[in-house]
Write a structure and sequence with these properties.
Blueprint: E1 8-9, H1 23-34, E2 37-40, E3 46-49, H2 52-60, E4 66-67, H3 74-83, H4 92-102, H5 108-113, H6 115-135, E5 139-140, H7 141-158, H8 166-181, H9 196-221, H10 231-237, H11 249-280, H12 282-296, H13 310-322, E6 328-333, E7 337-339, E8 342-344, E9 349-353, H14 354-358, H15 377-381, H16 401-416, E10 419-423, E11 432-434, E12 438-440, E13 445-450
Parallel strand pairs: 1-2, 3-9
Antiparallel strand pairs: 2-3, 4-6, 5-13, 6-9, 7-8, 10-13, 11-12
Helix pairs in contact: 6-7, 6-16, 7-11, 8-9, 9-11, 11-13, 11-16, 12-13
Length: about 450
């Protein structure tokens, strides 16, 4: 039983137009004005849940009081139109056997196996950054991290370089993100309504499906070794341990889209914010550089180094506190539920804005202050587990969280050891767009400087 919480009730249609421009800012306003449990009514009604204990109860869902997928929930309707039968959006009867098939593909040994690919990609990118640093020309770090994240994810998923396909992939993903960002107005937001955005999104999905089916066909025709570090090969061989059933090509396509768009978007956003925060906090940047110099010296990064980069990892954790990779999670109650002493009717939509939760001043002292030491072990132990959920909690926690964290640590270490990113134009970090992740509305223009202490890195 959680402590009683007063239910705040916002006036009907209270500023809901802001959901279309800055959804995170709107949720922050709701919390500031009405508290940690708020009923917002308007184009669609929902409860904003921002108390860590309540968030933990909803996500863990021990008593099965909520469902993640509900046809009445306009938020998940939109995500489901993109993810279809993928793990992030499938109904329980499909999700359970699919989770059993897919979970072993993200086991610890498999994720460690991807480290070599990640490190090799990072070394290639460092050479690219050498040229950028030498030129002194500013560039959009958001676009740069999009490209880097897509490179890493396609190499790991497909065991090959698909750079010639990056422009098409990014085009399809951009269309899908615009659809996810759009406000779900009644009628006009309906999936079958022939708006230009809906038509373009359906066309992007069809194009991606054809592209992915071609990759699957080529892999079937020329299979790799069964133990290859290649996600298509592993999905072709995946079986439900309870039934022995494998995955259809359609199911593989839907999972590939889920893994690609979620992994590409989340790590791209986190890397962007990491280099932005380092540029704004020279003392923290200096501690990262000192740790990297101490652990790595002048030799190349290896998988064995990652556990030794404790401060760098805390920087990443603090980045994902202030600007988490996924901005929201939503559930629908399947029965009448008690939340903090308030009776919430069956069929109610619950929204958890993760940036709002992660910047709750009742939990985080001076939440706007960037402080990696919030993630020292003793500080973590003192907080409710529901206070920090960048990858969710409970049975539907992100299956790729360890992959993403490893990628973030590898890329940050390999690039920050050699380069400093310098902000060129002013940036308001609160002026953001929220699709799947949170990112600056107008991009981030930066330039690169080589670190004075960073000489050539010896090969392993």
């Amino acid at each position: 039983m959680t402590a009683p919480i007063t239910l705040g009730v916002a006036p009907r249609f209270y500023k809901q137009w802001q959901l279309a421009r800055n959804a995170v800012g709107f949720c922050n306003q709701l919390r500031a004005e009405f508290g940690d449990l708020v009923l917002a009514r308007g184009f669609f009604d929902f409860y904003l849940v921002n108390d860590p204990e309540l968030v933990g109860m909803v996500l863990v869902n021990k008593d099965r009081i909520v469902d993640r997928v509900d046809a009445r929930n306009p938020i998940y309707q939109r995500i489901g139109n993109i993810g279809r039968s993928g793990l992030a959006t499938s109904a329980p009867e499909h999700w359970r056997p699919q989770r059993r098939r897919v979970a072993p593909l993200f086991g610890a040994s498999t994720i460690r196996g991807f480290a070599e690919t990640m490190i090799a990609t990072a070394e290639t990118w460092a050479a690219r950054w050498d040229a950028k640093a030498a030129s002194g020309v500013a560039f959009d770090m958001k676009a740069e991290m999009n490209e880097l994240s897509l490179e890493v994810n396609t190499r790991c998923l497909f065991n090959t370089e698909l750079r010639d396909d990056h422009a098409r992939l990014q085009g399809w993903f951009s269309t899908m993100k615009r659809y996810l960002e759009a406000f779900p107005y009644p009628l006009f937001g309906a999936w079958r309504f022939p708006s230009p955005l809906n038509l373009g999104t359906r066309a992007a999905l069809r194009a991606f499906d054809r592209w992915a089916l071609g990759l699957i066909a080529r892999r079937r025709a020329a299979p790799l070794a069964p133990d290859a570090i290649d996600m298509i090969t592993r999905m072709l061989g995946a079986r439900d341990p309870e039934t022995g059933r494998g995955m259809s090509d359609e199911e593989i396509v839907h999972e590939l889209l889920t893994f690609l768009i979620a992994g590409f978007e989340s790590t791209s956003s986190a890397l962007l914010w990491t280099f932005y925060q380092l540029s704004q906090h020279p003392d923290i940047e200096a501690r990262v550089h000192a740790e990297l110099d101490d652990v790595l010296g002048d030799r190349a990064l290896t998988m064995a180094d990652l556990p030794k980069l404790g401060y760098t990892r805390r920087v990443i954790d603090e980045v994902m506190r202030q600007t988490p990779a996924v901005w929201f999670m939503a559930r629908t109650t399947v029965t009448e539920v008690d939340l903090g002493g308030n009776r919430i009717p069956e069929g109610s939509h619950l929204l958890m804005s993760i940036p709002t939760l992660h910047n709750n001043p009742a939990v985080w002292s001076e939440p706007a202050r960037f402080d990696p030491d919030r993630f020292l072990p003793e500080a973590v132990a003192a907080r409710s587990p529901g206070a920090y959920v960048p990858f969710g909690r409970g049975p539907h926690a992100c299956i790729g969280s360890h992959f993403s964290l490893q990628e973030l640590l590898v890329m940050t270490a390999a690039l920050a050891r050699r380069f400093r990113a310098v902000l060129v134009d002013d940036l308001d970090p609160t002026d953001v767009r929220a699709g799947l992740s949170v990112y600056p509305r107008h991009g981030v223009r930066m330039r690169l400087e080589r670190r004075d202490s960073s000489g050539p890195v010896r090969a392993r």
